[in-house]
Design a protein that fits this description.
The chain is built from eight helices and seven strands, in the order E-H-E-H-E-H-E-H-E-H-E-H-H-H-E. It has 250 residues and is α/β, with parallel strands linked by helices. It has one domain (9-191, 220-245): NAD(P)-binding Rossmann-like Domain (Rossmann fold), CATH 3.40.50.720. The protein has a seven-stranded parallel beta sheet, sandwiched between helices. Helix 4 links the parallel strand 4 (88-91) and strand 5. It binds 1,4-dihydronicotinamide adenine dinucleotide and ligand LJPVP2WV. Belongs to the short-chain dehydrogenases/reductases (SDR) family.
């Protein structure tokens, strides 16, 4: 894996907000945006890891349960007050806990929609006015290959992740006249510590690599590289699109 990351001059000084930045892919993105010289902030429910990442990167960490929309709105406003108008939003936070179709109750369903979909919209709604004033902005939404692969065992999660595409494309149309771009990043199976611990059995890893055209495991930097480009002005005419980073699994 290449050590160096591409440099994006337009990200220097740009205010970037990442949700779910305390671990996994989100933590890698926080690290890389900070390395680009962006004024970086992240929201997460995980205080312990959030404070660790903030100490390591110098990024601003605000604890926030993104299922709580009033709290989300206050946190976004605090980021803008502290760092300046937000120019890039990365809607990364989610939870891919498995759940059987047979046992899901209405409250479970609603909670998983709140955890994986709803906050992506309300974070976009909160930053859009700042981006409208600047006549530019990049909003990234995180999807998943899981629904594309017809992965079972998590129907609420795969539903939420497929809905992200409709959300991004509709907002791309609404916000495009203001120079605001909306795109979806679609990770394949990305081997974070959590994924390794929870699900990376030799059989599951083997089956994934068998399915991928590229026979290597994906890691968070593979996603961060795509995100940096979509966040930067280098992708200035790219919107309403989905970018799959999965080693060719689908
Ligand atoms: N790792 C993978 O294999 C894949 C990941 N993805 C997507 O990529 C993104 C990042 O994935 P990972 O790093 O693996 O996720 P992760 O589960 O390791 O990290 C998600 C982060 O979001 C935070 N979070 C969860 N619920 C929250 C809430 N209510 N309020 C605030 N923060 C909350 C968690 O504390 C955590 O720091 C997610 O959107 C995920 O759905 C998609 C396909 C595959
Ligand atoms: O979104 C996802 O897609 C692939 C799954 O194996 C992974 O655990 C999940 O996060």
């Amino acid at each position: 894996m290449p050590e160096e990351f591409a440099r994006y001059p337009s990200l220097r000084g740009r205010v970037v907000l990442v949700t779910g930045g305390a671990s996994g892919i989100g933590a890698c993105m926080v690290e890389q945006f900070a390395a680009q010289g962006a004024r970086t902030a992240f929201l997460d429910i995980d205080t312990i890891n959030g404070e660790r990442v903030a100490a390591e990167t110098g990024a601003l960490f605000l604890r926030c349960d993104l299922r709580d929309i009033p709290a989300l709105r206050l946190a976004v406003a605090e980021v803008a007050r502290s760092l300046g108008p937000i120019g890039v939003l990365v809607n990364n936070a989610a939870r891919d806990d498995r759940h059987g179709w047979e046992t899901v109750e209405p409250d479970d369903w609603d909670e998983r929609m709140h955890t994986n979909l709803r906050h992506q919209f309300f974070c976009a709604q909160a930053v859009a006015p700042m981006m409208q004033a600047a006549r530019q902005g990049s909003i990234l939404f995180f999807g998943s290959v899981s629904w594309m692969k017809a992965q079972g065992g998590m129907p609420a999660y795969t539903t939420a992740k497929s809905a992200v595409h409709g959300l991004a494309r509709g907002l791309a149309r609404d916000l495009g006249p203001f120079g605001i771009r909306c795109n979806v990043v679609v990770p394949g199976w990305v081997f974070t510590e959590r994924q390794e611990q929870l699900w990376a059995t030799p059989e599951a890893v083997g089956a994934t690599l068998e399915r991928q055209c590229l026979k290597e495991k994906l890691y968070p930097p593979d996603l961060a590289r795509m995100v940096l480009w979509l966040a930067a002005d280098d992708s200035r005419m790219v919107t309403a699109q989905s970018f799959v980073v999965d080693g060719g699994a689908i």
